[in-house]
Amino acid sequence: MSQKIKFGTDGWRGYIAEDYTFENVRRCAQGFATYTVKHGNSGSWIVVGYDKRFLSENFALAVAEVLCGNGLNVYLTDGATPTPVISFSTVNLKAAGAVNITASHNPPTDNGFKVRDQSGGAIDPEGLLEIEALIPDSIDQVKIMPAGQAMAENHLVTFDPAPAYITHIEKLIDLKPLRDAGLKVMVDTMWGNGAGWFPRLLSGGKTEILEIHNERNPIFPEMFRPEPIQPNIDVGLAATVANKADVLLITDGDADRCGIGDENGVFINQLQVYGLLAYYLLEVRGERGPIVKTLSTTSMLEKLGKIYDVPVYETGVGFKYVAPKFLETNALIGGEESGGYAFRGNVPERDGILAGLYFLDMMVKLQKSPSQLLALLFSKVGSHYYDRIDTRFTGDPQEKIKGILSANPATIGGLKVTGLNTTDGFKFLLEDGGWLLIRFSGTEPIVRVYCETTHKDRVQAILKDGLKIAGLS
Prior knowledge:
Number of strands: 21
Distance between the termini: 39 Å
Largest sheet: 6 strands, mixed
Shape: globular
Number of helices: 16
Strand content: 15-25%
CATH topology of the largest domain: Alpha-D-Glucose-1,6-Bisphosphate, Chain A, domain 3
């Protein structure tokens, strides 16, 4: 019997050649195919895309062969494609769902199998469990139609997803002012799928786009992983200063997440970016609508919600929780702590490209630098400071959970504990409106300890206490 495959936040990720093998990828594809047919979509089309990791295009073709072998039809992207573009293509082509071969921000040793529904958004937790249960135990139970046959019979076609996505983006934002603004924009695509997109969207005017890490290199030199946080982005921050750029835009490996560096080479963390993007939509564009946030992201959103009289909904961590709530409430914006933001009018999926364009538009419309924009946000909601520590662990996570539950701290980092939220992990609420969250990753054997506070000098003390509570120090 083959190993049991467990789906995490977005699907399944594994170590290439150890558990992430062609056999196991085909088994996953069979599970998704069975799920799709079971839900009344026999004979429908599925979009299949991939990133620039080792053998991703080969794994994607293997998935396509299994889907076609189960009576489904496949639109296969003609090259490495950003996750938001794959999601948009699912809606644009009226497909029943999508499979994306990517491990997003994971280390270079990993690859992944992401699944999406007909909305282009993450499949809800119940659906993921159902797909997981339908994955066959043996490769012998997998149905395969060879690619040559599938193409000859028009069950498998390749397509260029870029033109339709660009036309869609131009309906959401006027790009001409950005092209004509005369900005110098540094872009770090982290060796990933975001390469070439900002030059293509913003060329033809006075604005200059400088890209780094824009070739295919699956070992991701100059960073630990293609995740848009420090220290992975330090080379990009230094390049911003060296080139006297006005801003640094960063996209992760599959370009669904966005990071920002200011004109001084200082990282604007992902919670601050979420606050800025929400402020942009509410204040600069004058739009109104609900905000959806995971419990691991900023409390600045609740403050903005009160200022602009819009509801704020909090979910568990991951877009498998954000996307359903985003659709249910017709939200203005939805997002999470990792730097992924979804926007109304677009698909219910993180879009690092659109997030970057919106940030540039805020700079142009308000005629402010990134550091000035952050100061403006803080003038509205007060200063907020954030940090996170990720620690690998071995052993039974249930034992660590028991230890956390028995801790019952009265104070954390010198601040009184006012409550505990156990929706997803352990979120200790603090007297200043800040919080400490201890949570086990849904994709890796990692304990994450995060905090946000209005006291800059207490961030490290809060994290230190968090590590003690988690039994990690």
